Amino acid sequence: MTPTITVFERSPDGGRGLARDMRVRWALEEVGQPYDVRPVSFDGLKRPAHLARHPFGQIPTYEAGDLALFESGAIVLHLAERHEGLLPEDASARARAIGWLFAALNTVEPPIVEREQAPYVEGDQPWHAQRLPLLEARIRARLAQLSARLGEADWLDGAFSAGDLMMVMVLRRIEGIGVLEGFPNLVAYVARGEARPAYRRAFAAQRAVFADGGTTDGRA
Amino acid sequence: MTPTITVFERSPDGGRGLARDMRVRWALEEVGQPYDVRPVSFDGLKRPAHLARHPFGQIPTYEAGDLALFESGAIVLHLAERHEGLLPEDASARARAIGWLFAALNTVEPPIVEREQAPYVEGDQPWHAQRLPLLEARIRARLAQLSARLGEADWLDGAFSAGDLMMVMVLRRIEGIGVLEGFPNLVAYVARGEARPAYRRAFAAQRAVFADGGTTDGRA
Questions:
Q1: CATH assignment of A91-196?
Q2: What's residue A209's pLDDT?
Q3: Which pLDDT tens digit goes with each residue over A133-170?
Q4: Do A73 and B110 touch (CB under 8 A)?
């Protein structure tokens, strides 16, 4: 059966592919699973029909038959467990790849989201400019550790996995503010992810939503 | 084989059980798996031997045979997949329980950690007192959604699962500041988790580290 995912009706970032549906689109493309899309407006996120699918009123969601899932990490893992291509076969390597999926979401992403949201949450406060260096120093500390672990390898632990998919997407959220750019091996790592055919197909698909009439408010 | 987990050599929260090893201890107790403990000092977290196990220099880690894992979410999921007691058998219910594990870590925990760390990160800044209400409002918004979904149920989706284990531990991090206390069904939910025999055994074990000479600096 063809699964359905929810995405923003209008691309909030102008088609840059930073919204969390991109993670699921990419995973679906990696495993060769076609999917349908249900667009949701920003107002629609708070309506009962959507909250029944996603109690926190976000995207993406995933529906296939009697299964309804939310949380991009859970959806990517679900796909990775049921199809080939996103997790190694060896049990220990598989557990480690899933470890990187959690590291992307629980260790690397939180300080990045804080930095990303700061202008919206407190951009009008007098302390905003003073906090930015603190927020960026926190991200830099995490990236230094990640960069040291990655070294000269192509991917975080052997072959490309769901952990790399998620880490690349998380790192993309800070492109352009000069933090990621201080770690050339991480920049190259992100570029390797973006060069994958499945990534390109997913990116084109989310960008089409933007081209079809989405507007940008600059916020992912 | 008996797995080994790393824990703080000295309980940083005075035995309150808020450090992330408690999540793994609780999971191990739920599935009836004995374990060994390797204490790590705060200085030791940054040493090469520990960074080889955990690239971000944190606890817990998990080692069993040739497998070394980090990230509490990944370790709890690994245990839940290999033992009975933390995930339902039905495939869809299982995927949803894993979804709650991710929701605890990627949607509910980040604003809680921000609030928890604020006094340490910027407690000496003039804006600190002004930011606290913003930080707490963000947590409250998430808890309102979580509370609405939980309703009068005992657990988030059917029987107790790894998702509940993680959510209870995440919610415990904001006990006592008056935010969680505004949602009586969440307070009762946390209490149900704390009343489980496995939780009590795990709590006693981490507290013994404190009693054995740990000191408190008030920070998890």
A1: 1.20.1050.10
A2: 84
A3: 999 999 999 999 999 999 999 999 999 999 999 999 99
A4: no
pLDDT band at B194 (very low <50, low <70, confident <90, very high): very high
Residue A92, chain B, CB below 8 Å: the answer is: yes
Is residue A130 less than 8 Å (CB to CB) from chain B? yes
CB–CB contact B145 A66 (8 Å): no
A 147-206 residues inside an 8 A Cβ radius of B: 148-149
- Does the interface ipTM go beyond 0.90? yes
Q: How far is A162 from chain B (nearest CA, A)?
A: 13
- Give A68's contacts in chain B (Cβ within 8 Å): 96
Segments in chain A below pLDDT 70? 212-220
Closest-CA residue of B relative to A92 is B67
Produce one character per residue of A66-102: b if its CB has 16 or more CB atoms within 10 Å, e if not. Answer: ebbbbbbbbbbbbbbbeeebbbbeeeebbbbbbbbbb
C-beta of residue A150 within 8 angstroms of C-beta of residue A156: yes
Contacts with A92 from chain B: Cβ below 8 Å: 66-67
Ranges in chain B annotated CATH 1.20.1050.10: 91-196
Longest dimension (CA), chain B: 53
Instruction: Give the count of alpha carbons within 13 A of B80, CB side only.
Output: 26
In terms of CATH, what superfamily is B4-85+198-211? Glutaredoxin (3.40.30.10)
The alpha helices in chain B, defined as continuous H runs, are 21-31, 48-53, 72-82, 91-102, 109-122, 128-150, 162-172, 184-194, 197-211
Determine the Cα–Cα distance for residues A107 and B43; give it in Å rounded to an integer: 20
Q: Which residues of A touch B68 (CB under 8 A)?
A: 96
Whether residue A117 contacts residue A109, with contact meaning beta carbons closer than 8 Å, is answered with no
The pair of three-digit structure tokens given for residue B204, joined into one six-digit string: 């006693």
